[in-house]
Design a protein that fits this description.
There is one protein chain. With about 280 residues, the chain is an alpha/beta fold. The chain has twelve helices and nine strands. Strands 1, 2, 3, 4, 5, 6, 7, 8 and 9 form a nine-stranded mixed beta sheet that branches. Helix 1 (about 15-25) runs parallel beside helix 2 and helix 11 (about 235-255) runs antiparallel to helix 12 (about 260-280).
Length: about 280
């Protein structure tokens, strides 16, 4: 068995993807690993470039976009590693971060999944790690009206604003742009719920890991740099905002919040419509 499987899903991020892969092979030393790259019907030559530059990578080429959930599940099905890393194509390593993550997880059997410290390209800390989402908190953060009525104390509590990201601590939700878990654990419940496409994926995954009796942790002992939103930038705001609203509805309906789920969904749809009208009238 290999130590680690790295699952990377890409949609039209060729240059960032190549940079990501080069950094993995440069800095990841001392463990056995494989990379499975799932190309979600890119049109920028990503798959061909990877096949040429990194023939050792397992390449899965989708004819249609199976989104983040479906594509990572494809990699999970064929993964040979003891541990499974979900990694965005716009990440870049500048140290042996993956080995640090693996060693930490290996020594902590009660921990089901960890995220590293994430930094923007210029070095600023990305405030990942939060409490579980609530309908009210999402309304305040995601809609124009909510931001006008902003309840900053509630948002700060949700975002764990006072937490030092350069220290290690348990977090209810960790970011799946770079999330390492145990392959046998995530296989127990079949990986991601593919009713989600792009958003609330980490929220749902963390809840299921915790329901299995494990904790999720922000691990500051490893650092990864993140370009942020490279794939979604290729899709365009109208599509992304629609997917966000749909995934929010799926998430809260799954948790039995029927009435409030629909209120949030309709609020997001009205908000998106208002933004589109405003953009066209500018």
């Amino acid at each position: 068995m290999l130590d680690l499987t790295i699952s990377i899903v890409s949609y039209n991020t060729k240059d960032l993807l190549l940079r990501c892969l080069k950094s993995i092979y440069k800095y990841t030393q001392g463990i056995s690993f494989e990379i499975i790259m799932v190309d979600n019907a890119s049109t920028d030559g990503s798959a061909q470039a990877i096949k040429h530059a990194f023939p050792q990578i397992k390449l899965i080429r989708n004819r249609t976009n199976r989104f983040y959930t479906g594509a990572n599940n494809q990699a999970l099905k064929v993964a040979l590693g003891k541990y499974f890393l979900i990694l965005n194509s716009d990440m870049v390593l500048k140290q042996n971060a993956l080995v640090k993550m693996l060693v930490f997880l290996d020594r902590q059997p009660q921990i089901g999944a960890i995220e590293p410290l994430q930094l923007y390209e210029h070095g600023q800390v990305i405030p990942t790690g939060s409490r579980h989402n609530t309908v009210l908190g999402d309304f305040f953060e995601l809609t124009w009206l909510g931001r006008k009525l902003k309840h900053q104390k509630l948002i700060n509590l949700f975002r764990l604003a006072t937490k030092n990201r350069r220290r290690t601590w348990p977090a209810e939700v960790i970011c799946d742009a770079a999330l390492m878990t145990r392959t046998d654990l995530i296989r127990q419940f079949g990986g991601y719920d593919t009713n989600f496409k792009l958003y609330y994926t980490e929220n749902d995954l963390c809840q299921r890991i915790q329901a299995a009796g494990f904790t999720t942790v922000h691990f500051a002992g490893a650092t990864i740099h993140h370009h942020v939103s490279a794939s979604t930038d290729q899709v365009g705001w109208p599509t992304v905002s629609s997917l966000y609203a749909a995934d929010a509805l799926t998430y809260y309906l799954k948790r039995g919040n029927f009435f409030s789920a629909w209120i949030l969904y309709l609020s997001l749809k009205l908000n998106n419509l208002a933004v589109l009208v405003w953009k066209r009238l500018r």
